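Example 428.
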Amino acid sequence: MTQNHWDAVIIGGGLAGLVSAAVLGKAGMKTLLLEKAKSAGGRAKTDIISGQYFNIGPHALYKNGKAVPILKELGVEINGSAPKIGGLLMDGNESFTAPFSPTGVLQSKLLNWKEKIEWIGILRRIQKLKPGQFSKLTFQQFVDETTQAPKIQKLLFTLGRLVSYSHAPEQISASVMLAHMQIGMGGVIYVDGGWQSIIDQLYNQAVTNHVQIQTSANVKPLTALDNGQWQITVSNPEPIYCSNIIYTGPPQALSGLLGESSQLPFNQFEPIKAAALDVALTRLPNPENLFAMGIDAPYYYSVHSNYARLSKKGESTILHVLKYHHPNESIDATEEKRKLENFLEVLQPGWQKYIITKRCLPQITVNGRLPMVNDTSLFTRSSAILPGLYAAGDWASPSFILSEAAAESGKQAALEVIDKEMRIKHAN
Ligand SMILES: Cc1cc2nc3c(=O)[nH]c(=O)nc-3n(C[C@H](O)[C@H](O)[C@H](O)COP(=O)(O)OP(=O)(O)OC[C@H]3O[C@@H](n4cnc5c(N)ncnc54)[C@H](O)[C@@H]3O)c2cc1C
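Predicted structure in complex with flavin-adenine dinucleotide:
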């Protein structure tokens, strides 16, 4: 084997790719990670702008999800704290206490007593049910079967948006949505230093175990060779050879990398998209308002710096506003920014006076795939798409999305590569 031959090449240095790298590195696999951006992290990176730590929109790590145990197993320390469950629900210009906690239910004027009892029963049922049993239903169908009360239906859609970032209840699979509702009910952590602190620890873990990481390396064609190996071309003329590839880029781009004859079903995946406004202020005009969601419109607002250190000195206020996009929506960047700023104005009147810096991302992919009813049949028990080519990323799990899917599929793909290489080694 040549110098330029690797047991595994990982394409993409986001959360999925770095989890794969850390797992492969620990197992002593000769591993190369290629990332097209100037630095690793993908959508889990944190940009430092004027000393303020901006995740790419609001990022909350689910305490009871799939990612936390995998990160801990890999030695990643997660510091930060859990925001209080509650806040406000906005219905036009009216606001109500969110009935997302026992006190919230008692205090909220959104629901009458009969509705409150029904709502508590539905939350209890969701906590206990088996999400897989609802794989034939969309979330909209689940909601229609669950309740006829319009306000409770709206609450379920709001909670659904919060945990999945999806604003397409008529399309998203109920089983994935319910799995994320169960995870969401366990609470979240806002991470100190932003999600970059997770990325940095995974990166260091991989490098310590001799994984080579190359940034500014945009992978172009992937060619399967007759001897069962793969050839990878980057901008550099020297091709790279490997026994296994873990692909973590967008699902829609994979066919293109494999050549014209390849038509993978992942081309059809619709991403989940949103508009995010990341804001740093010297102080909040209204310090009482720390969290709000729209129930009549698809908005989110949360002050993350109340629970995590998100600036160099830890003195600034970092908050995120988000609008969940419907897949059929056409997006006008200026209009999106205006809508996000207006939503913030309702909650924090005069916020512009205290601004340190802000950033608007009008149309960002939150998840590579909007999970649909029946698309789970595209995933088999193995993450291999072709012999020696494995998929990982937030789109590559039948049952989960977001960081849960990214971390779980990154680990799974790496374990399959290790297993294959060990079997070949023992056979020789
Ligand atoms: C606004 C927003 C809010 C979010 N909030 C949450 C949240 O609260 N909780 C949560 O769990 N998740 C959240 N997420 C989702 C989470 O950030 C992602 O699910 C996760 O970071 C995806 O990791 P990944 O490795 O699958 O993909 P990515 O992070 O996209 O990584 C893929 C990497 O591959 C690289 N790449 C692509 N093509 C190539 C190529 N040809 N050659 C080389 N490199 C390539 C890309 O540059 C990228 O770095 C949020 C995302 C957004 C955008």
